Amino acid sequence: MNGKSFSASTGPSGADSSAQDLGVLVGFDGSENAALALDYAADEAHRRNVVLTVVTVYTIPVRFYANLASMPAHPDAVTAREEALEILDAARGRLADYVGEIVYRAEAGHAVGVLAELTESARVLVVGMRGRGGFLGHVLGSVAVAIPAHASCPTIVVGDQPVPHGPVTAAVDGSDASQGVLAEAADVASSRGAVLDVVMVLPPSDYVFVWYPEAAVDSDVVEARRMGLEERLRDRVVPLREDFPDLTIETTVAMGPPRPLLADRTAGSQLTVMGTHGRGAVMSTLLGSVSRSVLHHSHAPIMVVPA
Question: What CATH number corresponds to the domain at position 256?
C-alpha cells in the first residue's frame, strides 16, 4: 500500500449508518490474521476508490459484584470500549501510509449481528478467518463462517496465505444464484486484470450408488452429461464476454467430490467466489456443507455472494 496521508474519524457506538456509504467494511480484532484482512481491505478500497471502514466490535461483560468494594473503578462498558479503541489505534498505525478516506468505528454488541447490520450500507465486507482466540468477544472462526449467510453484501474471508496472483475463480452450479456470483467475479477479475476461471463441479456417479446401489450409470451417459454442462456453462458466460470484452474467461466442468476439489482449487486462485445457496448435492452445493468446508480448509481468500 502506497500513500502519504489519510483522513479518519471514530464513529460513536451505535451510530446510525443507514445514510452512510461504508464502502469496504473490515472487521478488525488486532490479531495477525485480522491484520492480513485489514491490508486486503485497504487494497480493495483503493482499487474501488471508496471509503475504508474499520470496525472493532466489543462485548460488554455481565458481572455481578458482591459489594461496592469489589466493583471496578471504571464501569465495564467504559473499559470494554477503551480496549476496543486501543485495537483501532493499532489499525491506524498499520494504515499510516494509506492514501484515502478511512473511518474507524467501535461498536458494542454481538459480532455477527453488528457486522451484518453494517453490511446493509457496505459494498463488501472483509474478515479474517481466525483471530486471537476471541474476535471482539467471539471466536473469529465462527464469525467468519456465520457472517456470509447473514450479510447483505459480498463477504471476503481472508486466510493466512493470501494469493497475490492467479485467476479469480467463480464456483457455480447452474442455479439462479450463480448469476450473481458470475457478475461479482467478473467485475473483480476485470478490475484486477486477472483471468476469470468459471468452474462447475459434477460429483462422481458413485454418490448416487450410496442410496441406489442397484442403479448403474454408463460412462457414456456421464460423459454426455459433462459435455452438456460444458455447453451450458459456455452459454452462461456469453453476457459476461459482452460486458467485459477485455476479460479472459475460461470455463471448466470438473468431475470429483465438490468439497476437496473446490478447496484445492482455491490454493491457486487470488480469490474464489461462491454463493450462499446452491441447488444441493446433485451438482454442487455452495454454502451448505460444501461452502462451509471450503471456508474451513482454504488458506486463500474466499468471497461469498448473498443470493
Answer: 3.40.50.620
List pLDDT tens digits, range 113-126.
Answer: 999 999 999 999 99
From first CA to last CA, the distance across the chain in angstroms is 32
Is 140 exposed, middle or buried, given 0-12, 13-18 or 19+ CB atoms closer than 10 A? Answer: buried
156 CB contacts (<8 Å, ≥6 apart)?
40, 41, 44, 124, 125, 126, 127, 271, 301, 302, 303
In terms of Cα–Cα distance, which of 288, 264, 255 is closest to 274? Answer: 288
Residue 198 identity (one-letter amino acid)? V
pLDDT digits (tens, 9 = 90+) for 235-274: 899 999 999 999 999 999 988 888 888 888 888 999 999 9
Count of structural domains within the chain: 2
- The helix (H) or strand (E) run that includes residue 150 is helix 140-150
Rounded Cα distance between 29 and 130, Å, is 10
Q: Determine phi and psi for 168, rounding to 5 degrees.
A: -95, 120
Q: Which of 106, 77, 112, 109 is nearest to 89 (CA)?
A: 106
Task: Report if residue 198 sits inside a domain.
Answer: yes
Record the pTM. 0.82
Both 225 and 86 in one domain: the answer is no
Give pLDDT tens digits for 177-210. 788 999 999 999 999 999 999 999 887 766 555 5
C-alpha cell at 105: 468505528
Residue found by looking up cell 468446508 in the block: 293
Buried b (16+ CB within 10 A) or exposed e, 25-64: bbbbbbbebbbbbbbbbbbbbbebebbbbbbbbbbeeeee
